[in-house]
Prior knowledge:
The protein is of the alpha+beta class. It has helices at 2-36, 148-160, 174-191, 196-203, 214-217, 234-242, 257-260, 274-283, 287-293; strands at 97-98, 105-106, 123-124, 133-136, 141-144, 167-169, 220-223, 248-250, 268-271. Residues 169, 215, 220, 222, 265, 268 line the site of zinc ion. Zinc ion binds next to strand 7.
Amino acid sequence: MNKKKSKRLTPTAGILLVCALAVLCVAIVLILGRGNLPQPMDDTSEAPTTTAPSTTKPEPTTDAPLTINNVVTTEPDTTEAPSDSTEPPATSTPTTKQSESTGRIIVDVNRDDWYFIVVNAGREMPEGYVPELKEILGCGKCLDYRVAPHYEEMYYAAKQDGITLTPYSAYRSYERQKNNYNNLTKSYMSQYNLNEADAAKKAATVILPPGTSEHNLGFAMDICGTESSFSGTKEYAWLQQHAHEYGFILRYTAEKQPITGIIPEPWHWRYVGVENAEKIKNSGLCLEEYLDSIGVAY
Length: 298
Ligand SMILES: [Zn+2]
């Protein structure tokens, strides 16, 4: 009996042994295979997102792109993750060129963290760039399609508080900006008896040269008008209190004029994403300073 039983068990034991070996082999293959996979980058870079676990793939620096109208998510493609661990995530490494005609840096309008694009006196968008636009509120005025829904959301929220954030100036084409700028330059030439270069320089403190305005990008809205007295209105007070909740910041203040080069514009509100808007507001920094502070190249 025992002998028979022992003989019946032997094949079973053999099968078990084979199975165990097979499992062991699979485990070894998996372990070795894993060893060959790219390891998560050492998060010692200047990645601005401090809340992101270092073992995960690089993420957008704000929640903004993931919440935009379900149109686009800018989750970076991990296959394009930079191999150099000292580099920030690919999303904040823009390519930069310099314009031969103006000497300005030409910004990378295709960067994944598009809400960080900075245009100013020394930085311009590529000539001929036209953002993908979306009309807001059926009023015939447009913003970049990724920004428009946020303005509408803010508009309706304000409306519920009895505040009307009338869109005054939204997207402006390159050509229109050029005309506005040239007209003001000419006006200053006669008004102040300046040569063209000096008049253009003076004009640039009021109207940015074409391609250097956030209106050309479709990222900014002039709300209710362009009067400095706007800072005394209830609409302005509402914006000061709530605009960051919708991703907008006051872009040009008197305090930061030495950096932005622009006169105080209480009416000009620019989109940067909710998370960044809140941080910028709390920091008291302007956009350029903020990006420097979090190590984002722009
Ligand atoms: Zn403006």
